[in-house]
Specification:
It is found in: Cell membrane. It is a multi-pass membrane protein. This is ABC transporter. Helices cover 55% and strands 14% of the residues. With 998 residues, the chain is of the alpha+beta class. Among the domains are: 117 residues; 195 residues, no CATH class. Strand 16 and strand 17 form a beta hairpin. Helix 2 packs across helix 11, helix 11 packs antiparallel against helix 12 and helix 25 packs parallel to helix 28.
Length: 998
């Protein structure tokens, strides 16, 4: 019982050490669990939401639409739980200029169900539900009416030339028709599209500009009022996928098994079958056209024949009359009248030759008959020519049918192809990677500080330990006094850390996340396993340090422990051998230098602890500086143009005329911009891969006219880059990179994410979904967005643009223009404000789809989530620095109580004692800061390399001010600690402190 009381008394006496260990454990566990818990809560709530709304696991698209046979084939695939046929249509409407939307049918099989936020779901024809983004942009509300018009040049697969029949119509066969939606609409609800959780009222990440397939909004309509049997896509749910977290690898593996099956025989067979359906439909139309033409020709021939028969009858009557009259005249010249009467009563018999001669004579003698015969002959001739022409046309169509209908392509996509899903996953993964890295530094510092504190604690009780061991107490029992002390401190600190880690930090992160994404049903959850392991990790580390300190003391005999520890033998330090310097140092300065360098363990612990904390602060500030400069570097340095204008293909000419007529442009470059996909090539033609796979990046494909390749360098800074270490990259000379016809230039952001370098082969997908394997000629410095630059000739070579194959040798740009240049890069006159205002005014023009001012983007680019996490990390690192310095200062004082008492006896005033002790701590702190500044840059580079986010490359930047802030903050913490240490020095009693231990 006395042993326990003494142990408790010892614990109470060492309350400062207890608080230090508890605080370090609290901070470490909070960092370890907090960022993880925030990301996990977001992951889980989003996964529950996706399951509740039935977000598709797989989506199948086809260049020729999907028929009932395609849907039936997908239902038979092993592992498919549900299949939902999707019908959609692109429409346009007027909303401060021409805007586009996708009319999406609300599925009846429970897949991709919109989440109702306000109002009710549409049930009748003409009712729609819209997103909050549309409500915000349009100013409309529930009950408002809207009139839309079908897109004139729809980009839906059902309306492309791939499905055109022999007569040029858009029907793929006799029964399949493109979807058609009502045009007079009433808003009855506001919904959240499960495919896009972006918060329209919060921060919006940069997105690439798309081609003519882009729509601004999505409207959800019921099946009532929707006509057409052809499906634009099919969405699938996979068996067992809902039981897995959509963000885990197990989910991806489950879905991949099904996509591999679809990509196998099903995809190949249905592509062939669908094309055969189109061929059969074309042949049926040709056959129907031939039958209809034959019927019309037969009717016309019958009419001509009837007219000719009537004409012949009239001529024959005249011939008979003339023959009868001739016979009567001959009889009148005969013997008697009876003979004449008999001759007149009978028609003379004429041979065919005579009759035909008389017909021709009669027709020639009568202008009316001549004209009638000519009309009959002309009608017959025209009919024969029409027959021949129609037959030739039909035969030509039969011959051209196979070449006019291209091969049908299926694209099998998983959730990774959804921009909202992949953006959320990448954001959370990147933040979680920071949460996995920083606790390592906290753990190392915790172990170092625990070793320092517990070693001093054990050393202070040296004689007491010897007494207990001499009285027969086991060494384990004696060591348990310190092990339980450290364990209790870790458990209390860890428990408080779990509260902060699973409640405080996640709540802070989720507030920031909800400003970026809409996540219904978000709640904080506790992970017993991860929380327990988090505490256990620090318990093991601190206990290991405590065990080491105990073993170092208790391996001695009780007699040795009962005697005071012999003072460290005197020795010279290196500075003493440098006489010119050493001789100029004062007495107290020499004592300070000796104390610093003679006690190696204290030197290492103090400098290492301060360096680690400083490094964490620098690392956080480095990430902040890197993110803060992204917009300026991209939109001021890399993009040399001031304005990007994008239009629909049909409005490209009007857009260029509009911009030119305004007179603001000093120089410009016409280009074609499409949204596409870049993936690591698996060989072949790149058509066998799966769109949206984990090894792909969404890109902005920029095609440049052949005659203006050299002008690209005036609009975009072209600098080749090569991968470096620790977040750095080798950047080549400006202007040393040229676009040619031998490959594409890939942005550094996309190349870094995919591991692509110059000479690599990649799978490139253009805006029409056509894929090809391309060679990477160079990697260009690029931080925001994933631009891929390609020449007109190489674009034609990749995507088989027939009209563009000979553009390189053509004489006229108008004659050679194979691609529609739907975008313009332009340099403008005027200030940044005027350029921004001009871009906004252009967006109101009906011919402009999007106008972006680089000046506006440079000023407005922000990354709120990363900034919030950096602020959190810097705050925790500052707290750790304060605890570390407090622990080291108190340990330093406790080790040197007799020395401080001696100084007081010798006549040192309190302020002089303060200066004597604090000077050593400040020197050690400065040494730690000097070591921590480059270490922070090193760690910052490593962490930014781990931040693989879509369309972003973190070019590590640490501003001089950040180094100053980190150094000043650490020194400020050291000065603050002095305020706590000085009263301890004042309370040292020289008499009791100098008493002999024996």
């Amino acid at each position: 019982m006395a042993f326990v009381k003494d142990m408790l008394r010892m614990w109470a006496h060492s309350w400062k050490r207890f608080i230090s260990i508890a605080m370090i454990t609290l901070l470490g566990v909070a960092v370890l669990t907090g960022i993880y818990a925030g990301c996990r809560d977001a992951f889980r709530s989003t996964d529950r939401f996706f399951d509740a709304q039935g977000l598709h696991d797989v989506q199948v698209l086809s260049t020729a639409g999907l028929s009932n046979g395609d849907i039936a084939a997908l239902r038979k695939v092993n592992g498919v739980a549900k299949v939902q046929a999707e019908r959609s249509q692109e429409v346009t409407f007027d909303l401060d200029g021409r805007k586009s939307a996708t009319m999406q049918e609300i599925g009846t099989n429970g897949i991709d169900q919109p989440y109702l936020q306000e109002g009710r779901m549409p049930k009748k024809a003409g009712e729609i539900a819209v997103t909050r983004k549309f409500i915000r942009d349009s100013g409309k509300r529930i009950g408002s009416r809207l009139t839309v018009a079908p897109e004139s040049a729809s980009s839906d697969t059902s309306d492309t030339s791939d499905t055109n029949g022999a007569d040029g119509t858009n029907e793929t066969n006799g029964t399949d028709e493109a979807p058609s939606f009502p045009t007079k609409l009433t808003i009855v609800g506001v919904v959240l599209d499960p495919q896009n959780l972006s918060n329209p009222d919060g921060y919006s990440a940069m997105t690439s500009f798309r081609s003519t397939a882009t729509t601004d909004y999505t409207f959800f309509a019921p099946s009532d009022g929707v006509t057409g049997t052809l499906c634009t896509s099919a969405t699938l749910l996979v068996k067992g996928a809902a039981a897995e977290s959509t963000f885990d690898e197990s989910y991806e593996n489950t879905v991949k098994q099904v996509t591999d099956r679809i990509d196998g025989t099903v995809k190949t067979d249905r592509q062939k079958a669908r094309r055969q359906e189109l061929l059969d439909a074309g042949n049926r139309k040709i056959a129907d056209a031939r039958a209809e033409a034959d019927k019309k020709f037969a009717d016309a021939q019958s009419q001509i024949d009837a007219n000719r028969q009537q004409f012949n009858q009239q001529v024959d009557q005249i011939v008979s009359m003339q023959a009868g009259a001739a016979a009567a005249g001959a009889a009148a010249n005969g013997a008697n009248a009876g003979a004449a009467a008999a001759a007149g009563a009978t028609t003379p018999q004429l041979d065919e030759t005579t009759r035909e001669t008389m017909r021709e004579t009669i027709i020639a003698a009568s202008p009316e008959l001549t004209q009638a015969k000519q009309q009959l002959d002309q009608a017959q001739s025209q009919l024969n020519e029409q027959k021949a022409s129609t037959e030739q046309t039909l035969k030509t169509k039969e011959n051209e049918l196979k070449t006019s209908i291209p091969q049908v392509r299926w694209y099998v996509q998983d959730r990774q192809s959804l921009g909202g899903f992949s953006a959320l996953k990448s954001d959370l993964d990147s933040i979680q990677s920071l949460g996995n890295a920083f606790p390592i530094v906290f753990l190392l510092v915790a172990v170092m500080m625990s070793l320092t504190a517990m070693a001093r604690m054990v050393e202070e009780d040296r004689s007491l330990i010897g007494t207990y061991v001499g009285l027969g107490y086991g060494r384990l029992a004696v060591a348990s006094r310190y092990l339980l002390f450290a364990l209790l401190a870790c458990l209390i600190g860890g428990g408080l850390g779990l509260i902060a880690g699973f409640l405080g930090i996640p709540a802070f992160l989720l507030v920031v996340l909800q400003g970026m994404y809409v996540m219904p049903g978000l709640r904080l959850e506790y992970d017993w396993l991860y929380g327990s392991l988090g505490i256990a990790l620090f318990v093991v580390g601190v206990l290991a340090a405590t065990i080491y300190a105990c073993v170092q003391e208790m391996r001695q005999t009780p007699a040795s422990l009962l005697r005071p520890k012999a003072p460290r033998a005197g020795s010279r330090i290196l500075l003493e051998r440098i006489r010119p310097v050493w001789n100029r140092i004062g007495f107290l300065g020499k004592v300070t230098v000796r104390n610093i360098f003679r006690f190696k363990s204290r030197l290492i612990m103090t400098v290492g602890g301060v360096a680690g904390c400083t490094a964490l602060i620098v690392c956080g500030l480095a990430i902040n500086d890197t993110v803060a400069d992204l917009g300026i570097k991209q939109y001021r340095d890399i993009y040399q143009y001031d304005l990007m204008v994008v239009s629909d293909d049909s409005d490209a000419s009007a857009m260029r005329t509009k911009v030119a007529s305004d007179g603001r442009v000093t120089s410009s470059l016409d280009v074609r911009i499409e949204s596409g996909d870049l993936a690591i090539s698996g060989g072949g033609d790149g058509d066998s891969g799966k769109a949206g796979s984990s090894g792909s990046e969404s890109i902005q494909l920029v095609a440049v006219p052949e005659k203006h390749l050299s002008d690209l360098g005036e609009m975009v800074t072209l600098q080749p880059v090569s991968s470096g270490m620790l977040g750095t990259s080798g950047v080549g000379k400006t202007g040393s990179l040229k676009l040619d016809d031998d490959g594409v230039i890939v942005a550094q952001s996309a190349a870094s994410a995919l591991g692509v370098k110059a000479g690599s082969k990649v799978r490139l997908t253009n805006g029409d979904g056509v894929r090809a394997t391309a060679k990477v000629s160079a990697v260009n410095r690029n931080l925001i967005g994933s631009d891929v630059y390609v020449s007109e000739t190489y674009y034609a070579k990749l995507f088989d643009s027939k009209d563009a194959k000979n553009t390189k040798n053509s004489k006229s740009s108008e004659d050679s223009e194979a691609l529609t240049w739907n975008a313009m890069l332009a340099k403008l006159s005027g200030s940044d404000t005027s350029q921004t205002d001009y871009a906004e005014s252009l967006e109101e023009d009906s011919s402009v789809m999007k106008a972006v001012s680089c000046a506006h983007m440079a000023d407005s680019f922000k990354f709120d989530l990363m900034g919030a996490v950096v602020a959190l990390i810097v705050a925790l690192a500052g707290g750790l620095a304060l605890v570390v310095l407090f622990t080291l200062a108190n340990t330093n004082v406790s080790e040197r109580v007799r020395e401080m008492a001696t100084l007081k006896v010798l006549g040192f005033f309190d302020r002089e004692v303060h200066h004597y002790v604090n000077r050593e701590m400040m020197i050690l702190t400065v040494m730690g800061v000097i070591l921590g500044l480059p270490l922070g840059r090193l760690v910052g580079g490593m962490l930014t390399m781990a931040l693989n986010m879509p369309s972003l490359y973190f070019e590590v930047e640490v501003k001089p001010l950040s180094y100053v802030i980190a150094a000043v903050a650490t020194m400020a913490f050291a000065l603050l600690v002095q305020l706590f240490v000085n009263p301890v020095l004042d309370r040292i009693d020289p008499i009791s402190s100098l008493k002999s231990v024996e």
